[in-house]
Fold:
Amino acid sequence: MSKDKYFIIDFDSTFTQVEALDELGAISLQNHPERERILEQVKQITDSAMAGSSSFAEGLAKRLELLQAHQSHLPLLINRLKERVSESIRRNRDFLQEYADQILIVSSGFKEFITPIVTEYGIKEENIYANTFHVDAQGNLTGFDKENLLSLDKGKIKLLEQLALPGDVYVLGDGYTDYEIKEAGMANKFYAFTENVVRDSVVAKAEHIAPSLDEFLYQNKLPMAISYPKNRISVLLLENVHPQAVELFRREGYQVETVSGALSEEELCERIKNVSILGIRSKTHVTRKVLEHANRLMCVGAFCIGTNQIDLDACLEAGITVLNAPYSNTRSVVELALGEIIILSRNVLDKSSKMHQGKWDKSASGSFEVRDKKLGIVGYGNIGAQLSVLAEAMGMEVYYYDVVEKLQLGNARKCNTLHELLEKADYVTLHVDGRPENKHMFGAEEFATMKEGAIFLNLSRGHVVDLQALVASLKSGKISGAGIDVFPEEPATNSDPFESELRDLPNVILTPHIGGSTSEAQVNIANFVPNRIMDYINSGNTYGSVNFPNLQLPELKNAHRLIHIHANVPGVLANINQVLAKNHVNILGQYLKTNERVGYVITDIDKAYDKQVVNDMKQVPHTIKFRILY
Ligand SMILES: NC(=O)C1=CN([C@@H]2O[C@H](COP(=O)(O)OP(=O)(O)OC[C@H]3O[C@@H](n4cnc5c(N)ncnc54)[C@H](O)[C@@H]3O)[C@@H](O)[C@H]2O)C=CC1
Ligand SMILES: O=C(O)CCC(=O)C(=O)O
Structure:
């Protein structure tokens, strides 16, 4: 990099997250009876000046008058500001030090607090341009040096004119006075810095937006502390994912868009372009066709348990990892199932609807306790097993059937066949997963095998039950009641109608796929899934991924991490290591895990290496995706 580029960085709300004079006011007015009112007034003057709506010079004088500050307040202010240095400035200290000769802090703030902060980051004292306080004999900060160009309106422009820097000038700042430098022709580029504050009037004029210093460095091909600016990671969240997830992704610096309902395949093909992270629930189908339109997709987050709506193989082949929330709504489903078992045993639905029609039908006929009854659980996974424990606590006798061997909890009894379970159970509840082979696993034959008048629940997936057979069994009385939460065709949004042959049948509870829809579950999911996704993006961890080889990696420290995803064919690891050897790369650690289709190789390397290795890694035959992390 030649030395003819100069980087002008603003201080307030750019170098630090806050406006220093607001902070100074919070200290100096600590015991003032009208503290809040005065601070609000100071803030308004700052905002108005920064947005370019009022005279800067007048505002500065007015603010100092209001603040009633004393020089004894400055050490406390400096300590506070040190803690509030912007995150991206903090992490890019190496850049600030390496380019110290070309970095100027130009601020309408005051050197007395700016200098101790920015010099800690390698900024040269002679490159700090700011105002200075006037202090009276008692130590009060009564005003400022009016000769200083930066105390004047358009002061930054005047300063830049005087400096006449011999090269290209790039300005990074959040305020209108920073933009004005470019407008006056004193800078080649202005970047509106939006990490801490977004001033609409500034953003509207800026040709470049920098949500972080990383973005500024990335655009200008300057050395960065992290491998990729987080603001370039775009997240699309569908199906009303809980706002906590939006908040977590935004806090990480990602760009987030949300859609309240599910999207059709066509709509998703349109929207998926440039999306790095897709978040869905149970209704959006992530098909091979969708993936063909996904040019930047790294990860699909299923904000639920089931992942049958996602083409997991196609994701794998495209190097896209799929993560879900395997336990976050388990309890909610179990509680709904238990509630339905009781409601159906007492014929509550019919009695309640009669009451609403003004009919009093007090009778015990057709009503039973669940105690000592036999509950048959089909699919003894997380939900089935949890249900087993709670049902036993209510005095039920639990039987279960699963296609794989499962730990028997409490006194639950294993059935060797589904047939055996169906013959025994007074209640049959399905908690199998939605794999394609389970389509219509429960049909006429299974209903016929059930006990006369038994109760049936499905809170798993709609397609596992043959609906015609269920309707026939309900109409014939073979099944005396049912609780159905999931359907082969479910409306995409709450505005779409629900059509089903199950409507209007007596003693049938129909719920709109709400087994997992409790506040607790949604908050749990909204915390769990984004954290897993960010862990994958930031460290490569695939632990818990439903399609990728699971690797739990050590924290990345003093190294760069090469993440290579490839088709699992012989010789790829050897080729990778050849590339590393050819480029004399010092390997600090290597981790490999494969499944039948892909290999996942992580190589931690010394930070000093020839960048050619990156291109060479991408050229290794059978590479699906490659990225570098630091
Ligand atoms: N209604 C709702 O809102 C919700 C529905 N679900 C559904 O519940 C399903 C189960 O959830 P978890 O228990 O957490 O999953 P899990 O994977 O822990 O358990 C599923 C169990 O079903 C067994 N299984 C699969 N096919 C079978 C078959 N044909 N016969 C017998 N056993 C079979 C599996 O071996 C496994 O043990 C999810 O896959 C999802 O589709 C999950 C959460 C909420
Ligand atoms: O709440 C949802 O959207 C889906 C719940 C579900 O079916 C699941 O977690 O698998």
Observations:
- The two ends are 22 Å apart (CA to CA).
